[in-house]
Amino acid sequence: MGRIGSLVADGRVATWPRRVVPGACYLITRRAYQRTYRMRPHAVTNQIAQYCAAVAAQRTSVVTHAFVVMSNHHHLVISDPDGVLPEFLRELHRLTAKALNASQGQWENLWFAEKASAVRLPTLRDVVDKIAYCAANPVAAALVDAPRQMAGRQPVASGFESQDRSLGRVLRSGREYARLGRATMRAADCE
Q: Under 8 Å CB-to-CB from 21, ≥6 apart: which residues?
């Protein structure tokens, strides 16, 4: 049986450090503790999630291309121009946990103990596919019939630019994904 990482002196397993690549794009996923529905749709929860993601991105210069919050997990597609992924994740998850705990009268863990999943997206096609995944996730889970029905939780695609103007917008339908697939990103947004 293989182990991730290597054994340390006292027999515990230490995981390898996460590889952070400046300029890379990532799909981020984090689950709630015991898959509880702590992030279920509610006006306050929606505002907290959006605010915390915006603050974390602003503090770390990470660009958020897509963001969807489900009842027990979230997905983000981001570009990390400065290689500050760990700082972004710390800010996002710390702020979100504190704010949601306060709003719900909780004090225990919000997040599952394992670290967030950060899958590097090496090509523009991978980035567009994961943005479509974020938009389709609520539909696939049979929560809504279309992404626009997520009551303030629509997956947002932004940071996509042609050479002269921004194409950032909220994804509204399957036709929108196809148009977005033809968009180009600046080379600096994704290696």
A: 80, 83, 120, 191
Whether 97 and 90 have beta carbons less than 8 Å apart is answered as no
**Residue 176 counted as domain residue:** yes
Identify which has the larger pLDDT, 115 or 172: 115
**93 near 33, Cβ under 8 Å?**
no
Render pLDDT for 53-85 as a digit per residue (tens, 0 to 9).
999 999 999 999 998 888 888 999 999 999 999
Range of the domain at 143: 19-189
CA-wise closest residue to 115 among 21, 11, 26: 26
CA-closest candidate to residue 89, choices 145, 147, 152, 20? 20
Amino acid of residue 117: S
Q: Are 43 and 35 in contact (CB under 8 A)?
A: no
Query: Does any domain span residue 9?
Result: no
Cα separation, 19 vs 180, in Å, equals: 28
pLDDT at 183 over 50: no
DSSP for 146-179, written as a single string: SGGGSTT-PPEE---B-SSSB--EE--SHHHHHH
CATH of the domain at 153: 3.30.70.1290
Degrees to nearest 5, angle at CA 21 with 67 and 52: 30
Strand order in the sheet with 73-80: 63-69, 73-80, 24-31, 117-121
The total domain count for the chain is 1
